[in-house]
Design brief:
Blueprint (H helix, E strand, L loop, with lengths): L11 H8 L3 H8 L7 H13 L4 H8 L5 E8 L4 H12 L1 H6 L2 E8 L4 H11 L6 E4 L5 H12 L3 E5 L10 E3 L3 H15 L10 E6 L5 H17 L4 E2 L3 E2 L4 H14 L3 E6 L4 H10 L7 E5 L3 H9 L4 E4 L2 H17 L5 H4 L4 E3 L6
Parallel strand pairs: 1-2, 1-3, 3-4, 4-5, 6-7, 6-8, 6-9, 9-10, 10-11
Antiparallel strand pairs: 11-12
Helix pairs in contact: 1-2, 1-3, 5-14, 7-8, 9-10, 11-12
């Protein structure tokens, strides 16, 4: 199903301009009033159909007494994927305005459960109609989400879920499947050219408290234990999605284990991991799997430092989160097919 929101941001004036008629003519066609030539009616209707324009949606939103406000609780820091989501939300300004919607960013430390819970608690007394949160799976965060739901807000978890909470919907990929995919790729790509086998596989995550990271680790370990048991999985490292911290952790690990043949980065911090591999002179020897397509991971793929990026579309996630919140606020059904976020496997040879 199409994910592009450009046509949805059109107004009646845009339709009139594209059809080459006046705004009054478009209005007459929409309301089936007389006085419009058949070929003009046809041209206007074709323009509306071509752009998938839904005038009743914009009209209904404009008739409301106030705009709806959505808050997006996002992590602080320079996580490239999260920054992409924020950028796509900014690009939706026309679509949002047509529906009298406002999206506001609330930046916080999502790795600290007390800080994240406090940020959510502050939103409970606000007049936000909906809240999307990159969530940490922790009892205090779960309680804060439930309090928001009790206050009447619609809550959607984004990228990382808290399934035991009463949140209304989760927008993101199947992270267990993503982790299993990473495990299968490392197991199959490790070969004679990558050093001696059996060997060791390193894994670094932002935090096991993030549900998406925990589920990816679970899926990864499932596959490695059942299909590639000859490979030894080293103890998990936590880099908090920070480049400098991830670089230091991986540098020390490489120095201690010269027989590492595979490395899986569960979250962000990929640039730091790649720097550690390069400085150790092992960027061509170790199968390196990471997540998300950014300008940086694209460069690493082209260089051959990164073998595979397991990707999810940040634009789709941004749009899906807003659409789901809007459907919840309107008490309309959620189009599950449209909001399903797929897993993409990207290598140097199939970069979009």
């Amino acid at each position: 199903m199409a994910e592009d929101t450009a046509s949805a941001a059109l107004t009646l004036r845009d339709i009139a301009r594209e059809a080459g008629v006046s705004l009054a003519t478009v209005d007459r066609v929409l309301h089936k009033r007389p006085g419009v030539r058949p070929d003009t009616v046809r041209r206007v209707l074709e323009t509306i159909e071509r752009n998938a324009f839904q005038p009743h949606v914009a009209a209904a939103e404009l008739a409301r007494g106030r705009a709806r406000r959505f808050a997006f609780v996002m992590p602080t820091g320079a996580n490239p994927f999260m920054l992409q989501i924020q950028a796509y939300l900014g690009e939706m300004s026309g679509w949002l305005s047509a529906r009298r919607l406002a999206v506001e960013m609330v930046m916080t430390d999502v790795f600290d459960p007390s800080v994240l819970a406090a940020a959510l608690e502050q939103l409970a007394g606000s007049d936000y109609d909906g809240i999307a949160v990159v969530a940490l799976d922790h009892p205090s965060v779960r309680a804060a989400i439930n309090d928001l739901v009790d206050s009447g807000a619609k809550v959607v978890t984004l990228v990382s879920d808290v399934p035991s909470s009463r949140r209304h919907h989760y927008v993101g990929i199947d992270n267990i499947a993503a982790g299993r995919t990473a495990g299968a790729l490392i197991g199959r790509l490790v070969g004679p050219g990558r050093g001696s086998t059996p060997g060791k596989v390193a894994i670094i995550a932002g935090s096991q408290g993030l549900r998406d990271h925990a589920e990816r680790i679970f899926g990864f370990n499932q596959v490695m234990a059942s299909e590639f048991s000859h490979l030894e999985i080293l103890p998990l490292l936590e880099g908090r999605d920070e480049d400098d911290r991830s670089e230091q952790l991986i540098s020390r690990l490489l120095a201690r284990h010269p027989d590492i043949v595979g490395l899986y980065n569960v979250g962000a911090g990929t640039q730091g991991v790649a720097k550690a591999l390069t400085e150790a002179g092992r960027e061509k020897q170790i199968v390196f799997i990471a997540h998300d397509l950014t300008a940086m991971t694209r460069k690493l793929l082209l260089q051959g430092t990164l073998d595979v990026a397991i990707s999810q579309n940040p634009g789709h996630e941004a749009r899906a989160a807003v659409r789901v919140l809007l459907s919840l606020a309107r008490q309309e059904p959620i189009l599950s097919e449209q909001e399903n976020i797929r897993i993409d496997i990207l290598m140097r040879d199939n970069l979009p």
